[in-house]
Write a structure and sequence with these properties.
The complex is a heterodimer of chains A (158) and B (281). Chain A has helices at residues 26-33, 85-97, 106-119, 125-131, 143-157; strands at residues 4-11, 14-21, 52-55, 58-61, 74-76. Chain A has 158 residues and is α+β, with helices and mostly antiparallel strands. Chain A has a five-stranded mixed beta sheet, sandwiched between helices. Chain A is elongated and about 50 Å long. Helix content of chain B is 33%, strand content 22%. Chain B has a five-stranded antiparallel beta sheet. Chain B has a three-stranded parallel beta sheet with strand order 1-3-2, covered by helices on one side. The chains are: A alpha+beta (158), B alpha+beta (281). The A-B interface holds A 2-3, 21-23, 25, 44-46, 49, 52, 58-61, 63-66, 68-69, 112, 115-116, 129-131, 133-134 and B 1-4, 6, 26, 29-30, 33-34, 37-38, 46, 48, 50, 98-102, 104-105, 184-186.
């Protein structure tokens, strides 16, 4: 039995304590100890973006973040974004434009897109592409995802 | 199984690194955690530099320069309004590292310590004549960026030493920029060029990245080129000197031969771009 360490952090608005193995990544803690599964293990190298979560409101890679570095900090995953109006609009546009196929990359894409729209409400198509360059999708070919983010931005600007 | 230690001072961090043979310092984790996930490194302890206040933040020095704490994230450097003139090149380089998410995580100290020749900071820091502050078991010392890289991924850092800050001399008025040729946005450079052009358009500083173990800078060549920037033959000769100093390898981002051909193109296109920028200013 690997030695566990107790960490306290705020997950989706709730203060929690979690016992995780020493040196665990946030992705391991989320998926294995908390069973919070929206953050996906794709490459485990920080390249694919499928594990992206918000730490103190900034998107980070859960696979490259040590849980020890999250002590006392605010963490948000897709599970906690149901009431977020920007996220809801993005989700609807992703469905309508066909931006979701297998769905593995979708959570990470949405968190990156939401972060972009919260900082830049009317991004150019080029800006959207750059902002999503850290999220790999092997299904869609990206066009429908970019359509969705641009569509959501337009709707939110109205 | 890795234990994470969280010292709150540089002295404590250095002592912990000395105490545990298999310990490694960790800053943003953007590279080191990925390497650990791939079992390329198996540290017994990770000595986290997160909780050490003096490693954070970007401040002006008394001499008018800029001190960047080793824990400054790429996103902070990319947004730092104090990086003007000759130092603007560093801001541009920071903004081109990987993608927004990784820029929220990675730190300048971590990137410089890792010394990936294709990473963006080293040529920009060479162009700025940066000085690294280092702390270790034998105390603290300062190290010029020009003496830092010794070979591929080998630096002048001794065992148990950590980078605490990167200090840049006071900015001089200049048009400066960082140009990177990469396969896709966010990739490491195939070749890159950090350049600063003085306001009279007479003098240049140039550092080439990803074409050898460390950045390529030819200060004698820069001096010889002074006042001759409107002479294409002189610029070509200078670019030829940089090519002669380069020692690139073939890798997935491009062949050595391709990289050698990119150097003169990068020098010329960067110079054209900066001249345009200077005329607009």
């Amino acid at each position: 039995m690997a030695k566990k360490t107790l960490y306290s952090l705020t997950l989706n608005g709730e203060e929690i304590e979690v016992a995780s193995s020493a040196g665990a990544t946030l992705l391991e803690t989320l998926r294995e100890d908390l069973r919070v599964l929206s953050s996906k293990r794709g490459c485990n190298q920080g390249v694919c973006g499928a594990c992206t979560v918000l730490l103190d409101d900034k998107p980070v890679r859960a696979c490259l973040t040590l849980t020890a570095h999250c002590e006392g900090r605010k963490l948000q995953t897709m599970e906690g974004m149901g009431g977020d109006p920007i996220m809801a609009t993005l989700q609807r546009h992703m469905v309508e434009s066909g931006g979701v196929q297998c769905g593995f990359c979708t959570g990470g894409v949405l968190i990156s897109a939401r972060n972009l729209l919260s900082e830049d409400p009317s991004p150019s198509r080029e800006t959207v592409k750059t902002a999503l360059s850290g999220n790999l999708c092997r299904c869609t070919g990206y066009r429908t995802i970019i359509d969705a983010v641009c569509g959501a931005a337009e709707e939110l600007a109205q | 199984m890795t234990l994470v230690l969280t010292p709150t001072s540089v002295e404590e961090a250095v002592a912990l690194l000395a105490e545990h043979d298999e310990a490694m310092p960790i800053s943003g984790g953007a590279t080191l955690v990925a390497m650990r996930n791939a079992s390329l490194v198996t540290p017994s302890h990770l000595v986290s530099l997160h909780m050490i206040p003096e490693l954070h933040g970007i401040t002006r020095t008394k001499a008018g320069g800029v001190r960047i704490g080793a824990m400054a994230r790429h996103c902070e450097t990319a947004a730092c309004a104090d990086l003007t003139g000759t130092l603007f090149v560093l801001r541009r380089a920071a903004s081109m590292i990987a993608n927004r998410v990784v820029r929220n995580m990675g730190t300048m100290g971590g990137s410089v310590a890792n010394a990936d020749p294709a990473a963006d900071y080293l040529p920009a820091l060479s162009c700025c004549d940066a000085v690294l502050s280092v702390a270790g078991p034998d105390g603290t010392r300062e190290l010029s960026i020009h003496d830092y890289i010794e070979d591929w991924y080998e630096t002048a850092l001794e065992d148990g030493e950590i980078i605490t800050a990167i200090t840049l001399p006071a900015p001089q008025t200049a048009a400066s920029g960082y140009h990177k040729i990469a396969r896709v946005s966010g990739d490491f450079a195939t070749a890159s060029c950090a350049m600063a052009l003085d306001p009279e358009g007479t003098g240049l500083r140039v550092a080439i990245g990803a074409c050898g173990p460390g950045p390529i800078r030819d200060r004698d060549g820069e001096a010889a080129l002074r006042g001759k920037l409107d002479d294409p033959a002189a610029v070509a000769e200078f670019a030829g000197r940089l090519v002669a100093l380069a020692d690139p390898v073939d890798d997935v981002r491009g062949s050595a031969e391709y990289r050698l051909r990119l150097i003169p193109r990068l020098v010329t296109s960067s110079l054209v771009e900066l001249t345009k920028q200077k005329e607009l200013a």
